[in-house]
Amino acid sequence: MATDNHENSELNPFLQMKKRLEKASDLISVDDGVYKILAEPFQELAVSIPVRMDDGSFRVFTGYRVQHSIARGPAKGGIRYSPEVNLDEVRALSAWMTWKCAVVNVPFGGGKGGIICDPRRMSEGELERLTRRYTASLLDIIGPERDVPAPDMNTNAQTMAWFMDTYSMHTRATCTAAVTGKPIGLGGSLGRNEATGLGVAIIARESLKHKNLPSEGCTVVVQGSGNVGGLAAKFMHEMKHKVIAISDMYGGIHNPDGLDMPKVLEWLQEKGKLEGFPGTTNIDNDQLLALECDVLIPAATENQLTSKNAADIKAKVIVEGANGPTSDEADMILEANGIFVAPDILANAGGVTVSYFEWVQNRMGYFWEEKDVLDRMERILVDSFNDVVASAKRYETSARIGAYCLAVERVAYSHEMRGMYA
Amino acid sequence: MPNDNNPIEEPQAPSPTLSDDNPFASMMERFDEAAQLLGLDPDLYMLLRRPDREFKFAIPVKLDSGDIEVFSGFRIRHNLSLGPCLGGLRFDKKMHRDELRALAAWTTWKCSALNVPFGGSMGGVNFEPREHSDEVVEKVVRRYTSGVNDLIGPERDILIPDLHTNERMMAWAMDTYSMHARHTVNAVVVGKPLGLGGTQLRNSAIGRGVRVLMELRLSEMSIHEKVDVVIQGAGQVASQTALELERNGHRVIGMGDLQACFHNASGIDVAALVQHREKHGSLTGFKGGDIIGNAELLSLKCDVLIPAAASNQITGRNADTINAKLVVEAANGPTTKRADNILEQRGIPIVPDLLGNSGSVIIAYFEWVQNRAGYYWPIELVEERLDRMIVEAYGKARNAANKHKVGLRLATCMLGVERVAYFDKLRGIYS
């Protein structure tokens, strides 16, 4: 629950973000004033969104858009629809976007948005009206040069198309670059769909190489089987690693001899849940995370690895497909146990990298082939991985704090060069 | 790392939830009551009670020491169905988000009741200007203005001075907005100095309104001669009210603030009192009357009592001691709900704050009108138009009170809510 987040700092994502920021800022000796600027969002807007419901009544929803930083370029980040949306979570996610964009060195700041609603209980028409009014309420602060949203939890290409249309109707000209994650043919980029999952697999590959582990035949456990977890598992399978367990919101399946991932995903598509896939045993979330394996990919939600279960983790490498799956307290335990953690702001940055490509293609009105998109993404991710490892080595710290050091350095540099307005 | 720079509670949802000790709780309560009496559609009332949007942003400023400090700026817009929003800019370290919400809503109802075509908003910075140099204050004003640049404007949201802000700061705000717009836009800010778009009567409109309403209400009570008045407060509002009354032949027999109160049965020399306060920063040492306590001041025998200082001054505890024939509220929310009931039982009528200090909103509106026209009214015209708007608003409130068989305070609230609800419904929901 939202209120619990405020009481327990280990579960409050914004406080978790600040802890890492503080550690990194100390290591690289950021100016106190610049630290103060980076510790709080640049601006945040809360809006009331009245929506006419199908039954004729109307309801007023609450929506947020937080821009953590615009020091390096327009704010960039997703919009989520969920009953659990709360301001501190949106703030943390927007800050993570700042660091993520800086780690992969794309010219964006960080933003994030959300609406407190239960999309499963709303009709298509209600969701469309909700999206359009929310877009209209944000008009003063968004735009291709200001803040570029993208899909997130419970939002998709259709949502982005409505968003783009509403924005365009107000500006009196089609403006595809106002939002990314659009449908192909409406300004969407080829490769956007697989970008995050493939990026996670690429970072896993680089992490294994870094830890001198074999380039094939490693055992892999994946938490989550959506667009990130499912595709990451598929790509790991294609790289000839052995995915031995994967889960969805109902539970996990396990086969120590390895899962045939394409078949698993087909099954999931067909049945709506993993449970019952032939040749597997059911396991729960705690068992899944504690499995003996080479690579663990938490690709579900926040706050999965905490001080409570970090000591049980037996993986050699953790690659964070989700945002914020590991608490700072858990980081300490994992580091002491010699486990390499490829942090979220690096590991799942494939998504924002291709979002950046989508924005670039929209701005020039010329579209790249899928291979170009994915090759360019791979180059950026591999370079970023090496930058992060070098930064961690330089400051004698973990890959996570190394990544934060790299990101904070880049953002702080922008602030110092731009100076203080007014 | 704890952020001691930001004491403001964060919202889970932007709906004003007020605690009992919040002075605005009773104000909002009255509007809930008004909505109920009007039989407002609950969906519509939920929409009206919530701010349209809340904006929070960082204000990084380089201090004189060279260090960077980051303050938090706010702009809350409550409702825009009647026109652009009007809302204060206050500097207050202890600012509370709920208070800003309530003030924004308050302004919506107030403009509506007064037939001023504005909605309500409110904004501020958690900043104490007296702890900083003029240069730093100017930077904060400028950075605030550029932070809300996309949200404000003559057709969107207009700034007006409030707690710890003044006409000089409004000039900086106007200048910053104009620099961004690449041309002078004086209608984005009201309360400006004369010559920069400020209007005649800007420093005496509230006092004039209080006097007009007082005389109007007294004449209904068949009191047509000059009266003896007690004024609580010695700040801007209290001083201009006292001067206005004195100019019009009334006698101020008691006046003062928390530091010192004075009684003089033959009339206090108001001009001397105001001068003393300007010169010494407080009333301490003023010789124009007998020194009395604040409780004594409120219970002085007089014709009219004018609370013109803070909220929650006439309460359940002291309402019995009030010894006036009429109370005219110049401050916001000086009378609690319990005191309201006691005064009603005792047959002491009240001219409520919504009407009592309406001069501030009306003069703000006139400044905006003159800025838009680029044509400035002579003082006689401003006076005549101010009087007319106040008298009309009073008449409408009086009719509503008779129609709904409620007190003037509740009637004014109902008038305010009813118009906004009506126009919101006519405009419909955009999506």
What is the 3D form of chain B? globular
Extended strand count of chain A = 12
Give the % helix of chain B.
40-55%
Quaternary state reads heterodimer
Q: What is the overall number of helices of chain A?
A: 15
Verbal overview:
The complex is a heterodimer of chains A (422) and B (431). Chain A has 422 residues and is α/β, with parallel strands linked by helices. Chain A has 2 domains: 2-11 and 40-179, Leucine Dehydrogenase, chain A, domain 1 (Rossmann fold, 3-Layer(aba) Sandwich); 193-347, Rossmann fold. Chain A contains 15 helices and 12 strands. In chain A, strands 9-8-7-6-10-11-12 form a 7-stranded mixed beta sheet, with helices on both faces. A 5-stranded mixed beta sheet of chain A has the order 1-2-4-3-5. In chain A, strand 6, helix 8 (229-238) and strand 7 form a beta-alpha-beta unit. In chain A, helix 4 packs across helix 15 (399-418), helix 13 (350-364) crosses helix 14 and helix 14 (370-394) packs across helix 15 (399-418). The longest helix of chain A is centred in the last third of the chain and has 25 residues, at 370-394. Chain A is globular and about 55 Å long. Residues 1-7 of chain A have low confidence and may be disordered. Chain B is an alpha/beta fold and 431 residues long. Among the domains of chain B are: 53-188, Rossmann fold; 205-356, Rossmann fold. In chain B, the strands form 2 sheets. Chain B has a 7-stranded mixed beta sheet. Chain B is globular. The interface between A and B is large, with 44 and 40 residues.
Summarize this entry quickly.
The complex is a heterodimer of chains A (422) and B (431). With 422 residues, chain A is of the alpha/beta class.
